[in-house]
Amino acid sequence: MNKSTLTTVPKVRLAANHWLMDCLYYFTKPYGQHIINHVVKTCSEAYEDYVSSHPGFNGHVHFIGFSLGGIIAYDIASMQWSEHEDGLPPWAKGDVSNTPDITVPPLGFKIKSIFTCGSPIAAGLICRGLDYLQFRPPPRTRIHNIFHPFDPLGYRLEPMVHPNYDTVEPVLVDRTKRLPRIPNLGIKSSIATAKPYIQSFWQSFFTVKAESVVTYSDHSLKRKEEELDDDGVRKKRRKMIHQDNTMMIPKDGILGTDGNMYPRLDYVLSENMIDAYASEWIVALKSHFRYWANRDVSHHIVKTLLDYQ
């Protein structure tokens, strides 16, 4: 691959070879099977090493996958059905085409939950002609499909459970406390001293602006109103709103087209103030590559793990 890569824009091509090509490799049978085998082997070895160091361990095992890693974790977990504990897998009564063209070795442990961050699982299923209700992890494995609202690779899973749930808002991940108290470095007193001057400035500014508006013609006023409206649309283009026809359902489960109840799958992060003003490209890149540094994601995972105790 490196010999076939052009030498122009080397940084962009390096990123493409490291990130984009991984997806093409995984969805190609020989390379995809090799990736699955390697991931399963690595996970099994890590589990065995941990158990050997902690002989009395009887806790849960969880997967965390980012981007393509979430799809891989989903595929591995979906092939871990046990007829004795979970019953027949949903694809057993259907066609063989309801499963991907890969063979997943059995794991030596059970997966309690999967946390995926910015993983296009739904897109991966659709592109391979698969359906969530036919190819999914066993009920003992809980999926947390976490995504930022502006992540271009974030896709929802719940509409695949039932088409009507495309109007249902995903579960909003709780926000952690952001702003610590300002230390006593003289900053607060300086701001308090300058506050009257700032208020006086803004009052005089708005007074002058209001007086100048009177001299505008009706045509100028209309044009300025249109400009302000356009500017407001641009700034609020990313703001998530709740439609009147939004369905309200409990946080603990949704009803599938097969008549079974499924736990909530989609979890959305809160947007930041800068997301409403920055360029779409910058926001998209930042949203996809900031999961590991997002405190809300860490808080959600830790809170979920503690709930299992």
TrEMBL record:
<dbReference type="Pfam" id="PF02862">
    <property type="entry name" value="DDHD"/>
</dbReference>
<dbReference type="GO" id="GO:0046872">
    <property type="term" value="F:metal ion binding"/>
</dbReference>
<protein>
    <submittedName>
        <fullName>DDHD-domain-containing protein</fullName>
    </submittedName>
</protein>
<dbReference type="GO" id="GO:0004620">
    <property type="term" value="F:phospholipase activity"/>
</dbReference>
<feature type="domain" description="DDHD">
    <location>
        <begin position="107"/>
        <end position="307"/>
    </location>
</feature>
<dbReference type="InterPro" id="IPR004177">
    <property type="entry name" value="DDHD_dom"/>
</dbReference>
<dbReference type="GO" id="GO:0005737">
    <property type="term" value="C:cytoplasm"/>
</dbReference>
<dbReference type="InterPro" id="IPR029058">
    <property type="entry name" value="AB_hydrolase_fold"/>
</dbReference>
<dbReference type="InterPro" id="IPR058055">
    <property type="entry name" value="PA-PLA1"/>
</dbReference>
